[in-house]
Amino acid sequence: MTKESPLTLELPWVEKYRPHKLDNIVGNEETVERLKLIANDGNMPHMIISGLPGIGKTTSIHCLALELLGPELYKSATLELNASDDRGIDVVRNRIKQFAQTKIQLPPGRHKIIILDEADSMTPGAQQALRRTMEIYSNTTRFAFACNQSSKIIEPLQSRCAILRYNKLADDQVLTRLLEVCKLENVQFNTEGLQALIFTAEGDMRQAINNLQSTVAGFGMVNDVNVFKIVDQPHPLVIRKMLRSCCSSQDIDNAIDLLDGLWVKGYSAIDIVTSAFKVAKTLPDINESKRLEVIKEIGFTHMRVLEGVSTYLQLCGMLAKICDI
Amino acid sequence: MVLVTDFFKAKKPAAKREQPSPPSGASAEEILASIPDAELPDTSDSQKLSFFQLQQRKAQAPQATGSVDIPEAKPHCLSGLTMVFTGVLPNLERTDAENIAKRYGAKVPKSISGKTSVVVIGDEAGPSKVQKIKKMHIKAISEEGFLQLLRSMPADGGSGGEAVKAKRKREEEESRIIQEAEAEEEQERARQQQAKIQHVPPSVSKHSSRLPAEPVREISNDDKLWTTKYAPTSTLQLCGNKGQVNKLRSWLLHWFDNAKNDFKDPGADGSGVFRACLISGPPGIGKTTAAHLIAEDLGFDVLEKNASDVRSKSLLNSDIKSVLNNTSVMGFFQNRHADVHQENERRFCLIMDEVDGMSSGDHGGAGALSQFCRITKMPMILICNDKSLPKMRTFDRVTYDLAFRRPSENEVKARIMTICHREKIKIDPSIIGQLVQTTNNDIRQMINLLSTVSKTQKTIGAEQSKDFSKSWQKQTVLKPFDIVGKLLNGQIYSPHSNHTLNDKIDLYFNDIDFTPLMVQENYLYTRPSNCRDDSDHLRRVAQAADDISASDRINSLIRSSEQQWSLLPFHAVMSSVKPSREVAGNISQRINFAGWLGQNSKQMKYQRLLQELQYHTRLRTSTDKKELRLEYVPLLAKRLAGPIVSQGENGIQPCIDVMDYYFLTREDWDTILDFGVGAAKGEAVLKKIPTKVKTAFTRTYNSSTHPIAIYKTGNSVGTTKSTASTVDYEDVIQDDTLKDDDDTEEKDDSKFDSKKDKLIKEVKPKKGAKRSKK
C-alpha cells in the first residue's frame, strides 16, 4: 500500500479490520470469554461495558449482538443509538419504549437488543426514564451500554446491569494485531516503528491502527522517525530520560543535550512541556512529594509558555529548577 | 454449598474417632488458654479522652505494615468464637484481621460484651474497652496470639460447646436453605403445570392494565434474567425492611376504612391520615417489588407510572386525575371462586415509580402529584430514591413516609444462598459478605453479578473474592464532601497505599469546581500525620497556602478569555493534591462547605453599593471607588450617625443637611453605616439609636425634598443591564443591515429609558410628600 497505488475508495483500516466475531477480539480474555458463553447460551443480561477509548467496547457489543441474533435478525432486532443520535428523555420515552414493545419472532433464549453507545453522555433524566423500561420489558428486550466512565451512569441503572470493565490492552496484544494488519496490507516496517506505534497508542488499538495507516499513507515505511513525525509528539522516552537525569543525578548538561535534540527536531515548547507533564506524573523511582515539586515547576513553565514566552530559555530554566529541587 | 456440607459429613466422624490429642482435637477453650495473655495497658491515667484525642493517638501509632504471613488455617476453625478487635495491630490492618476472622467463622462484633470470648488487642486500645476487658475477665491476646490461634485451632472450632453449637446452627441454616430452594422449585413446577392446564399466560395480571399484555408465548424460566426469575413472589421472600413492609401492608389494608373516616383518624400507627405513601431508599433493595407485591396480595389492580412515561402537570391532570375515582373492571373478569379479596378487585392502586426522576418535560409534575395526594380517592404509592432532594419537599406532609433501608448481610445471605443452590453454584458463604460490601447492599446488583460470573465459574471460593470485589464495584461520582474527606485523610498518601498520583488527580476531576474551594476551606482543620512539632505544622500549612494561592493564578488563566483548559491537570495538582498532601492527617472537625461562595456574593453586593454611592456623591467628591471607601466613608459615617447618636432628635437636621450636600438618599445612609467595621460597625451604631429617634429621622427625611444629582445609572440597577443586553440582541437578530449609527442611537435610547425609570421611582414619593404637606 504505497503512494503509487491508484486512489481507490478504501475504508479506514479501523473499519476494514474491525472484528466481526468475538473470537477475533483482542485482549480482556476473561470478559470476552464470558461474552462468548452468553453468545452460545443466549439469555444475555443487561450489561454495561466500561473502559478507555479504543479497546473494543463497541466492537464487542456488536459482535455479541451479531452472534446472538445472526445476520438476518440483526437488522430488525437491534436498536443502536449513540451520542450522534438524539437521546433525550423524549426519545427514551418514545422510540426506545416503542422498540421494546414491538414483537419480533426470535428463537428461544434470544432477545431484542438495544445498544446505547457512549451512554455516559446521556442526561440523567433520560437515564431515569430507562429504569422501569429495562425491567418491564426484560423478557423480550435487553440493554447493552458502552461508556468510558461508568460513574456517569446513574446508580439505579448500574444496579440493573452486569458491569464489565475492560482494561487497557497489553502492548503485545496490540503488537499481534498490528502485525496481522501489516501482513494483510503488505506494509514495510521495522521493529522500532512498531514499538513507537505501540508506545504512542498507550493501549488504544484504534489509535495504533490509525497511526499505522497515516504513517503508511504519508511515508510508506513504518519506522520510529516516521511514526513520531506523524504523531507529532516528542518521544516520551527522551523526555523521561531528560527528567530523570535532572532528578536523580542532577546532571543538567545531559538533560540540556537531550532537550537540544528535541528542540532541533522542531518540537515547540508547548509540545515538550505538555508531554513532560504527562511523564512526570508517573516518573518511577522518585517519591511522590518530589514528583509533585517537579510537576509544580513544569506547570509554571507551562503557564509561562501559554502566556506567550515559548522560548528555549524557559525550558532550560525549567530543567535547571528541577535539578535544584 | 453442597461441597461444604459434604465436607462436613466427611470430616465429622473422623474427628470424633481421633484421640483428643492437643492441639488438633482440643477444644477452643484449651487452645485459648495456651496462648499467652496480652499485656493490658494501664488505664488509670487516661480516664477521659475525647474522640479527637483518641483519633490523634491512633494516627501517631505506627501504621500497619501489612507484612506478615497469614497462616493457612483449617476451615471454620474459629466458629463459635466471638472475637473483638481493638486498637492498632502492629502488622495487620484491623479490617483485614476482621475479614480473616470472619472467613474462618468467627463472629466479629464491634464492641465488647459478656458473650465475647476473646479480644485481640493492639496498640492504643481505647481505655474504656480495656476497662471492660478487665471487669469482665475476658481473655485478651495480642496479634501474635491471634496468628497462633489460627495456626493451632482444629477445623470446625474443635469440640468445645460453643463450637459445636455454632456448627449445628450453620448446618441447620444450610439445610433450611436447601429446603427453601426445593420448596421454591416445587412451587415453580406447580405454577407451570397450572399454567399449562388453564392455558392462561401466567404473568398477565402482573403488570398494569395500561401496559400492553405480555406476549402470550410462554417464556421459559431459563431465558429470564435472574432478577426476574428470582424476583420475590411473596412478601415473605423480601429481604429486610420487614417492619416497613408490614406498615405498608396495614396502611393499604385499612385504606378504605380510613377513607370512610375521611382520613381524620390517625389510627394506631398514625398512618390513617394519609391518602398516599412515599417509599424512599437506595436502588436495588426491593422498593418497587414490595409495593407491587403488597398491592397484588391485597387484590388491587395496579396502575403503574414511571419515569418512562411523560408526567407533566397537564398530562397528569388529564390522565391520572380522571382515574383517581374510577373502578377497575378487572374484578369482573376474575374467577368467582377466588372471592377472598373481592372487594378490592374493583379498586385501583396507583404506583408512581421514580418520583424523583421527574425532570425536564415533566414540568409541574411533582406539584400536581402532591395535589393528587391530598384528594385521591384511591391509594397511591410513590417511590423515590432520595427524599431529601428539594423537589421532593412538596410531598413532605401529604404522604405517609416509609424509608427503606439497605438490608444487612444476614438478611440477604439466605436469599443469595437459595439462588445459588437452585442454580447449582458452589459459593463460599464468606463471599457473600464481600458481595454485600462491594455492591453497597444492593440485592439486585448482587444477583446480576452472580448471574454473570456464573457463566464461566460454577465454584466461587474465597480466593477469587479479591479480584471480584474490585471489578464489581459500582462507580459513582463522589460528592464534594467525600472528595475532600479522602484528600485530607492521610491514608491515600501513605507509601503503602496503592493510590497513584493519577488517582488523586482523578479525585479532583470528580468535581472540578468545588474541590479546590473545599480544600481551601478545610485545609486548616487537620492534624498532619508524622508532624514533628508545631513549627513543622506551621511550615506545612504555609506551604499549602502557597500552593493554593499559586493555583488561583492558574485558575484565572484557565477561566480567562484565553481559556487555557490544558492547564486543568496542573490546577488539580496545585489546588487540591499538593496542599492536601502537605497537611493530610486526621480531620479534627466536621468538613465545612466552601464559604467562598457566600463571601464572594457579599463582596459583590458591597461593590455594587459602593458604586452607587460613588455615583451619588460624584458632584462633591472627585475620587475613585477605593478612595471613597477608604477616605470618605468613615468620616461620612461619623457625621451622618454621630449627631443622632449624641443629640437624639436634635441631631437629625444636621445629618440631613450633610446628606443633601452630598446628594445622598436615605438608603445610602444605611449603606454607609453598613460599611463600618470594628467599633463603627453598622449594627453596633444602630443599636445606640433609639427606635423612636430612628422613625423620627425617617419621617423628617421623607417630609422634605432633597436635591438629586442627575447621574448615570450603573450596575446598581440589576435590570438595566439585562434589558440593555436584550435590546442589543434583538437589534442584531432583526436588522442586520442597520448602520452602526442607528445602533448606538438605539442603545442611548434604552439607557435613557431606564434612567427615567429610576428617577420616576424616586420622584414619586416626594410628590406624595409634598401633597401631604399641603
UniProtKB/TrEMBL annotation, chain A:
CDD domains: AAA (cd00009), HLD_clamp_RFC (cd18140). GO terms for molecular function: ATP binding; ATP hydrolysis activity; DNA binding; DNA clamp loader activity. It is found in: Nucleus. GO terms for biological process: DNA repair; DNA strand elongation involved in DNA replication. Keywords: ATP-binding, DNA replication, Hydrolase, Nucleotide-binding, Nucleus. Coiled coil: none annotated. The keyword DNA repair does not apply. GO terms for cellular component: Ctf18 RFC-like complex; DNA replication factor C complex; Elg1 RFC-like complex; Rad17 RFC-like complex. Residues 43-180 form the AAA+ ATPase domain. InterPro entries: AAA+_ATPase (IPR003593), ATPase_AAA_core (IPR003959), DNA_pol3_clamp-load_cplx_C (IPR008921), DNA_Rep/Repair_Clamp_Loader (IPR050238), P-loop_NTPase (IPR027417), Rep_factorC_C (IPR013748), RFC_lid (IPR047854). SUPFAM superfamilies: P-loop containing nucleoside triphosphate hydrolases, post-AAA+ oligomerization domain-like. Belongs to the activator 1 small subunits family. This is Replication factor C subunit 4. The lineage of its organism: Eukaryota, Fungi, Dikarya, Ascomycota, Saccharomycotina.
UniProtKB/TrEMBL annotation, chain B:
Its main location: nucleus. Residues 11-47, 153-213, 735-774 are annotated as: Disordered. PROSITE patterns: BRCT. Pfam families: AAA, AAA_lid_RFC1, BRCT, RFC1. Residues 735-747 have a biased composition (Acidic residues). One of its GO terms (biological process) is DNA repair. GO terms for cellular component: DNA replication factor C complex; nucleus. SMART domains: AAA (SM00382), BRCT (SM00292). Keywords: ATP-binding, DNA replication, DNA-binding, Nucleotide-binding, Nucleus, Phosphoprotein. It is found in: Nucleus. Coiled coil: none annotated. GO terms for molecular function: ATP binding; ATP hydrolysis activity; DNA binding; DNA clamp loader activity. InterPro entries: AAA+_ATPase (IPR003593), ATPase_AAA_core (IPR003959), BRCT_dom (IPR001357), BRCT_dom_sf (IPR036420), DNA_pol3_clamp-load_cplx_C (IPR008921), DNA_replication_fac_RFC1_C (IPR013725), P-loop_NTPase (IPR027417), RFC1 (IPR012178). Residues 169-179, 748-765 have a biased composition (Basic and acidic residues). Residues 73-152 form the BRCT domain. Belongs to the activator 1 large subunit family. This is Replication factor C subunit 1. It comes from Candida tenuis (strain ATCC 10573 / BCRC 21748 / CBS 615 / JCM 9827 / NBRC 10315 / NRRL Y-1498 / VKM Y-70) (Yeast).
